Amino acid sequence: MEIPKHLEIIFLGDELLLGIRSNGHLVFLGDQLTRHGLPIRRTQEIRDEESEIRTAFLSAWERSDILITTGGLGPTTDDLTRETIADALGRSLVFNEEQEAELRNFFAIRGRDVTPNNLRQCYLVDGAERLINPNGTAPGQWLEVDGKLLIMLPGPAHEMKPMFDEEVLPRLVKKGLALERPAYLQLRTIGVGESYLQTRLEPIFDRYAGQLSIAYCAHNGFVDMRLRPVNERLEWSRLEEIGNECASELGDGFLGYGEPDVAEWILRKLRSLNSKLAVAESCTGGLLASRFTDVPGASKSFAGGLVCYQNEVKEALLNVPGCLLEQHGAVSAECAVAMATGVAERLEADYALAVTGFAGPEGGEEPPGTIYLGYHSPVGVWSYKLIHPGQRAAVKQRAVNSALDFIYRKLKKYAAYDLLESMRC
Amino acid sequence: MEIPKHLEIIFLGDELLLGIRSNGHLVFLGDQLTRHGLPIRRTQEIRDEESEIRTAFLSAWERSDILITTGGLGPTTDDLTRETIADALGRSLVFNEEQEAELRNFFAIRGRDVTPNNLRQCYLVDGAERLINPNGTAPGQWLEVDGKLLIMLPGPAHEMKPMFDEEVLPRLVKKGLALERPAYLQLRTIGVGESYLQTRLEPIFDRYAGQLSIAYCAHNGFVDMRLRPVNERLEWSRLEEIGNECASELGDGFLGYGEPDVAEWILRKLRSLNSKLAVAESCTGGLLASRFTDVPGASKSFAGGLVCYQNEVKEALLNVPGCLLEQHGAVSAECAVAMATGVAERLEADYALAVTGFAGPEGGEEPPGTIYLGYHSPVGVWSYKLIHPGQRAAVKQRAVNSALDFIYRKLKKYAAYDLLESMRC
Hints:
The structure is a homodimer. Chain A is an alpha/beta fold.
């Protein structure tokens, strides 16, 4: 494998330095470029000022084989990228008539007039190829100079991202600078820690020492594991075989390849069982229901949810017995199970999840961060206690992750049980 | 006012360049530094590699009066910031015994042993002041060299942020490099656009032409407006007067100074009215309830919520008449009102919000993004139609924002009405 090119990115925009919004472009481009085997070497965020653009550009250009810029291609006087970079390269700007025609058309179909400053966007750096922008008026630019490559992209995300996917990536692949196929195989695991993964999979990875690099990334109850060949001796099909070995070793801990969503997996599984799910939430306050309803078509297997913050509501809507609440309290294993059963009955669902706990900042008989999950299913009920100390929003999030993890594992187990049953027949 | 110092930040971490997580440190530090009158000039994200750290550090150090780094202060072999920067500055590392004592104590109370590599974290660059880290084992470092200032902070957010607030900012203020008081006055507005704000407030701002700079930032249904004096002639008390003028001009559109949360405002208001709120959600699927339950102490005025995805559930739990659903459909003004009334009755709440609509990707009789809000209150019921085309998650989010905006405005009006009534008595 060739030594990767030195690639840098300069993001223009005062708002990035003011902490007003996070640099989503970096996440998008970092992910896309890494995936296609062209890792980023260094990035900068700079202000929309001519002197800043000039100095940042010149030093990055000297170091780089490939340099990408985002922002500053618009029609207004503080859009300075095009002019400043052309000047720094000692090149003139050339008017592009195709761009003018597209621009006039863009405005015509919107019933607006083209103003003179819009026409600034028709200029390309001498020698640059135009990157089409169907979502805005500023074209991108692709310029090859002295064996180096400069790519200028517009700032708005809904213009930059499609332009990268449709105009930039295919050109990079065609020039042999990026891989068409992902550079790594990603396995998503659930409910297991990084160190468990390392220990458990060590015997497999040891057989490929020196041939395979493994990167872990933990987020939201998942750990993503990326397997990447360190040289070309390891073929993609072999990588898939290793992935399958890891998957079978991990069992329930393996969620899928790529970026599968666990809520989607659960709803799909329930649909295949011709079953419905309901949820009852106290401390997570609707967040668990919201995760399920984020899945398109959720209504086919998600019956609904109840957010019962108060004891009277738990009694009235979920049929949680008043004496149970008195004896054990609302934050208890008994209450969690009663909530799950109650919501399943109310919403005529076969499966139900319930969450009750202290999200904080205040606790009760137990410290904030104490959570009880309740689970109702055709084969029985369970409760499970968790302790997730932290900020209120983080506690809610972790409780939701744990609830998803819990039902996922239960449903995986049933699947195996069903299989056993069917084999017996 | 002095010319601001040239401040740069270098963020270390391979994961930033891989698109695995967004650079939240930049948002936090950008916001904090801007607020305290010390804007960032330029930032970089670099890899955890010695040669990268060295070259990025040396060029940034040459340009900067103040340079901040985050990351690479930990105990492992890929934590290279401390050693590399000391070397680049031609300084030795000095063992700090206070840090050793704290480190041993940190491990002792957790029942863990100190390993030799942990002791690497006790070394400071010669001449550096130690910045205490109560949340981890790596201290920060504050080094003044030749009239320049170098600040090294640890990478984990829960260590870096408190260290910035408690150790760094007070020192910057003490040295006259940052303002103790915010550099601007922030007004949060709700439910009004940027251009409306500009037009509406122009007469006020025109009177301060050349003295006042105004920045707008739109997010999540709010527009934040920052008023900043461009020179010292404009005193803080005058700025507050201007803020009050804007607030009274905007009426209901003014939510508060700083960063008030509208859900918190609504629950506080309801509590003062000795009233409770319930919600019924279809397409937002729990997200509205979750916004309210994000507020600590929500249970005092939030009765609960029902997520009713299916018509049968709307009938069974919310008493929405079956014939109404047949006649108008579930996505209708009539259904929204019936849902609001139904949930108010069920949960014995005085106020209720309901949301029904097509979140997408599929629609029904109306296109995806069509939303009906329903509102129930002691003085009547309302319904309100919205069209928010977009991705499913964005449609949900906007519908929630609109629902919050809607009840906020209603409650503001009642407050005025109550006042009128009480004046009449």
